[in-house]
């Protein structure tokens, strides 16, 4: 019988959390497609899309579940491709646990900002993906002497700008969700440490964390005040 070294496996460079997120969103997309269709608004709401009246009624988990739902095949295809390449790279930089936090915190902020400033039913991993893009850009500023991070940041700045321009030029795009995700990801990069690199100064980390929480509270307050 051959033994499997689990410790070695979980310390490998395999982007396990990226694969996990991909698996969750693909399974949910298949289930939705078989249960009314992923573009059906009622199906989206039943499966956990960001829907303000439901959030107001106490379903706060809708700030997280939309990250894993997608509206149509093109939507999930593009986001899955982006998640695979971008997620693998960021998970290698941060490690699986910290990458998990960055991804969720970006998506959470994006969905809360969307709740605060829009009324549309929304879903998609784009909030978290914009968070990853913005976190990568922030790393280039936090560690300007690290050539790898600085070059990565410069490339991602262009991608963020192009994606924002595309979003504002198109209909049916939750641009506030994208903006919120980017803000959440950038702030998270300041208070979630990259292993093997010098940590950000404690004062800066605390300020970034406070800013993150303050924006969440403000957007939730605005969202509730509109109903």
TrEMBL record:
- What's its membrane topology? Multi-pass membrane protein
Q: Where in the cell is it found?
A: Membrane
Entry's InterPro entries?
Peptidase_S54_rhomboid_dom (IPR022764), Rhomboid-like_sf (IPR035952), Rhomboid_protease_S54 (IPR050925)
Q: Which residues form a coiled coil?
A: none
Q: Does the keyword Hydrolase apply?
A: yes
Q: What does UniProt give as GO cellular component?
A: membrane
Question: Which Pfam families does this entry report, sorted A to Z?
Answer: Rhomboid
- Listed transmembrane segments: 16-34, 67-87, 99-117, 123-143, 155-173, 179-196, 208-225
What SUPFAM superfamilies does this protein map onto? Rhomboid-like
User: Which molecular function terms from Gene Ontology are attached?
Assistant: serine-type endopeptidase activity
GO BP terms: namely:
proteolysis
Which Gene3D superfamilies does the UniProt entry name for this protein?
Rhomboid-like
Going by the UniProt record, its keywords in alphabetical order are: Hydrolase, Membrane, Protease, Transmembrane, Transmembrane helix
Location (main, coarse): membrane
Query: Residues in domain Peptidase S54 rhomboid?
Result: 58-192
Family, according to the entry, reads as follows:
Belongs to the peptidase S54 family.
The name on file for this protein is: Rhomboid family intramembrane serine protease
Q: Which organism was this protein described from?
A: Jeotgalibaca porci
Organism lineage reads as: Bacteria, Bacillati, Bacillota, Bacilli, Lactobacillales
């Amino acid at each position: 019988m051959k033994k499997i070294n689990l410790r070695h496996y979980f310390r490998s460079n395999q982007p396990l959390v990226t694969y996990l997120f991909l698996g969750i969103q693909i399974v949910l997309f298949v289930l939705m497609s078989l249960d009314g269709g992923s573009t059906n608004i009622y199906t989206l709401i039943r499966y956990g899309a960001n829907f303000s009246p439901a959030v107001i009624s106490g379903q706060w988990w809708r700030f997280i579940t939309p990250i894993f739902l997608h509206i149509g095949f093109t939507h999930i295809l593009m986001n899955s491709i982006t998640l695979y390449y971008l997620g693998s790279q960021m998970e290698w930089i941060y490690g699986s646990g910290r990458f998990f936090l960055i991804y969720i915190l970006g998506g959470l902020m994006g969905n809360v900002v969307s709740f605060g400033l829009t009324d549309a039913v929304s879903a998609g991993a784009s909030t978290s993906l914009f968070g990853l893009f913005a976190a990568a850009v922030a790393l280039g500023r936090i560690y300007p002497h690290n050539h790898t991070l600085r070059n990565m940041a410069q490339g991602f700045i262009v991608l963020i700008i192009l994606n924002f321009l595309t979003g504002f030029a198109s209909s049916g795009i939750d641009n506030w969700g994208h903006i919120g995700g980017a803000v959440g990801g950038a702030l998270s990069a300041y208070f979630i440490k990259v292993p093997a690199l010098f940590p950000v100064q404690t004062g800066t980390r605390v300020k970034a964390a406070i800013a993150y929480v303050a924006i969440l509270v403000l957007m939730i307050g605005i969202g509730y005040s509109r109903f």
